[in-house]
Write a structure and sequence with these properties.
alpha+beta; Lipocalin; 3 domains; ten-stranded antiparallel barrel; five-stranded antiparallel β-sheet; signal; Porin
Length: 450
């Protein structure tokens, strides 16, 4: 019965599972045959050998039937598993690479986001700074103080007299013991309009001084002189007198702020500068009568004036600190041209009748002027928009002689040498001309906000 069941199962497997058909027969005798099963029944198996021959074997002779397709399926399964493992490994590698890339992209995006936020924060801070630097106001100030001034004309005129004494048989020269720099009292006014980055400033200053000219004057009386004395006679007189000087300066400057900051404002400034100087002197020259009867007493009325026209360029700043204090300053280079004039109306004593003979001499010259100006102002707010200030300023211009002429009313041939040689040679050697204004002031500011 068991044998019948085994044959039945074998028959079912062979008949209904063609995918499992045998390709190898292992006989009980130990012989191994390769081929294909062609047909079979309950007792026999028809087997086609590899060489094409067909043989019939009893199933009682067969020990084992091996099916090649089963073996192929196992190999294919192993190969499939191997491929799946390789694909899985490749997939993992790709997943790892993708994860690394995603991580790198995340880090890059994070850095970009941080940069973007930093730039936005920087832009926000800059906007806040610009908002704080917005200004729109008009400020007016007035100050008083004192200082020193100097123009080129008084020492220049003295140099001309030295030249006259050298080149003429009848001339004069003087030495004033008071310094060229004159003490003065000054007052100033300023209007400044500011609108964000731009500023417009109009400033004027006037300084007045009192001079007491004193010194010595050397007179030479030649045979051709207007007083008719003998040749070679000289006397020394004492100079006494008084004078008034005035120094006026007006500047208009425009400023621009390239990069505004909340508490420190740096500007490029430039504009137009005008300077006027003048002095009026009355000088008495007193001395004894010479052995030949010449009276050397003379009275002189002198008028000095100059006019400078030029421009300025430099830097300015304004620094606010401790809420109520402001430090302002400018440092500029100034250059331009100066026209100067000196007039001397002299009255000489006439020994014959006690009267005075008039004599007029004039100097008219042109200069190039270059120098610098430094100005500092410290302000402190005392109430609302009202503040007080202290200010210091120093301006020095060096004047270089260009051309000019000397005029007088004597018509003497002795003046020819002076006219030709004095202005061009002697004057630049003996005198380094400067225009100077230095002052210290205190005053008040008031600001009108818009």
């Amino acid at each position: 019965m068991k044998k019948i069941i085994s044959y039945f199962i074998f028959f079912l497997c062979v008949s209904f599972c063609p995918a499992l058909r045998s390709e190898t027969l292992l006989l009980k005798s130990g012989e191994k045959l390769e081929g294909n099963i062609v047909d079979q029944d309950k007792d026999y198996v028809t087997f086609k050998l590899a060489d094409g021959t067909t043989k019939v074997y009893k199933k009682t002779q067969i020990k084992k039937i091996s099916y090649a397709k089963v073996v192929d399926q196992a190999s294919k399964k192993e190969e499939t598993q191997k491929i799946e493992k390789e694909e899985t490994a490749k997939k993992k590698i790709k997943e790892m690479e993708l994860a690394e890339k995603q991580k790198a992209d995340f880090e890059n995006n994070k850095l970009e986001e941080e940069k973007r936020k930093a730039n936005e924060e920087k832009a926000k801070r800059r906007d806040e700074e610009l908002a704080k630097t917005k200004r729109h106001y008009l400020e007016a100030s007035f100050g008083i103080g004192n200082g020193k001034e100097q123009s080129e004309l008084r020492p220049f005129y003295q140099t001309i007299q030295y030249a006259g004494l050298l080149f003429s048989s009848s001339g004069q020269a003087e030495i004033l013991t008071n310094p060229y720099k004159t003490a003065n009292n000054s007052k100033s006014g300023r209007i400044k309009y500011v609108w964000n980055r731009f500023s417009l400033e109009l400033k004027g200053i006037e300084a007045k001084g009192i001079i007491e000219p004193n010194g010595f004057q050397t007179l030479s009386f030649g045979s051709g002189g207007g007083s008719g004395g003998s040749s070679g006679e000289r006397v020394v007189n004492i100079l006494l007198g008084d004078a008034n000087s005035k120094f006026q300066k007006v500047s208009s400057r425009i400023g621009f702020t390239p990069y505004p900051l909340p508490s420190l404002d740096l500007q490029v400034v430039g504009g137009i500068d005008r300077i006027w100087t003048s002095a009026s002197e009355e000088v008495d020259s007193v001395g004894g009568i010479t052995p030949t009867g010449m009276n050397p007493v003379r009275i002189s009325y002198r008028e000095y004036s100059s006019s400078f026209r030029g421009g300025s360029l430099g830097i300015g700043f304004e620094y606010e600190f401790l809420d109520r204090f402001t430090l302002q300053g400018q440092f500029v280079h100034i250059s331009g041209k100066t026209i100067s004039s000196a007039k001397n109306y002299e009255y000489r004593a006439n020994g014959s009748n006690g009267s005075f003979l008039p004599n007029a001499t004039g100097l008219d010259y042109w200069w190039t002027s270059k120098g610098r100006e430094l100005n500092l102002r410290l302000s402190a707010r005392v109430y609302n928009n009202l503040s007080v200030f202290i200010e210091a300023s120093d301006m020095i211009l060096k004047n270089t002689l260009q051309t000019g002429y000397i005029s007088d009313n004597e018509g003497s041939s002795d003046q020819i040498g002076l006219k030709l040689f004095g202005p061009k040679i002697i004057i630049p050697i003996l005198h380094d001309s400067k225009t100077i204004l230095t002052y210290y002031q205190i005053g008040a500011n008031y600001r009108f906000d818009f």
